[in-house]
Specification:
disordered N terminus, mainly alpha, Four Helix Bundle (Hemerythrin (Met), subunit A), 228 residues, elongated, Arc Repressor Mutant, subunit A
C-alpha cells in the first residue's frame, strides 16, 4: 500500500530551516548584497528568534556556499551568479539521472505507486494554493526517486548537496503555474515505468532545467540591473 504523504506534517519545519529559507530569498532579491556582513546577534534581534537558531541557519548557508566565514571579517554574503546556480542544477541532473537509470532493474510497483501518490497530493496542494505543502511534497518525490536507485552513496551525496533546500528556493521564486509544475512529475514516472535509460535521462534533464533556467535567467537579469 502506498504511503500517504498528505498525512505527514510536511509544512512544519524547524525554526533554523525557516530562517535559512528566508535568508536565501533575501540574498536572491538583493536585500543582502555580495560582501554584506551578517551579524548573528543583530539578525536574531531583527527576526525575534534565538541566536542558536540563527547560528544553525548560518552554518548551513556557509556549507551551501551562500555565505563565507573569514577570520577577522566574520560572516559575509558571497558573490552568487547565474553560472553558480546552473552548476548546482547540472550536478543535480547528473545525480538524479544516475539514480533513475540504476533504478531500472530495482524499482518496484509499490515504489512507483508511492511516487504516483505523492504527485496526486502535490497537484491537490497546488489546486488549494498550499505552496509550502506542494514544495515539500516535491522534495519527497525527488528524494524517493533517488532512493529507488538502491545506492546509498548517491542518496548521501544528494542530501549533502542540500538539493531539498534548492527545491524550496525554486518553488518559492518560480513564476511557473504550480499545478503545471506538479503535474509534469508524471512524465518522470512514465520514464521510470519505461525502464529506458535514455528516456529517463531526457525526462530528468528537461524536468530540472525547466525550473532551474528561469531562476537562473531571473538572477542574471537582476545582476544586469544592479550593474547599471
Amino acid at each position: 500500500m502506498a504511503e500517504s504523504y498528505g498525512k505527514k506534517k510536511l509544512t512544519r519545519t524547524v525554526l533554523s530551516e525557516q530562517i535559512k529559507e528566508q535568508l536565501m530569498e533575501d540574498i536572491f532579491h538583493r536585500k543582502y548584497k555580495a560582501g554584506d556582513r551578517i551579524v548573528e546577534s543583530a539578525l536574531a534581534r531583527e527576526l525575534g528568534v534565538s541566536q542558536a537558531s540563527v547560528r544553525e541557519a548560518l552554518r548551513s548557508l556557509i556549507a551551501m556556499g551562500f555565505l563565507e566565514n573569514e577570520p577577522f571579517k566574520g560572516i559575509t554574503v558571497r558573490s552568487f551568479t547565474a553560472k553558480d546556480l546552473m552548476e548546482v542544477y547540472t550536478v543535480r541532473i547528473a545525480l538524479e539521472t544516475l539514480a533513475g537509470q540504476l533504478s531500472i532493474n530495482r524499482i518496484t510497483d509499490e515504489e512507483i505507486a508511492e511516487l504516483e501518490n505523492i504527485v496526486s497530493e502535490m497537484i491537490e496542494a497546488s489546486e488549494k494554493g498550499d505552496t509550502q505543502k506542494r514544495i515539500h511534497l516535491n522534495i519527497a518525490f525527488h528524494e524517493k526517486l533517488v532512493q529507488t536507485s538502491g545506492n546509498k552513496l548517491i542518496l548521501q551525496l544528494y542530501n549533502y548537496m542540500r538539493f531539498g533546500t534548492w527545491s524550496i528556493l525554486t518553488g518559492n521564486l518560480s513564476e511557473m503555474d504550480p499545478i503545471q509544475i506538479s503535474a509534469r512529475h508524471k512524465i518522470l514516472i512514465d520514464a521510470l515505468k519505461s525502464r529506458d535509460p535514455e528516456k529517463i535521462a531526457k525526462a530528468i534533464r528537461e524536468h530540472i532545467e525547466s525550473t532551474g533556467k528561469p531562476l537562473s535567467d531571473m538572477l542574471m537579469n537582476e545582476n544586469k540591473s544592479q550593474a547599471k
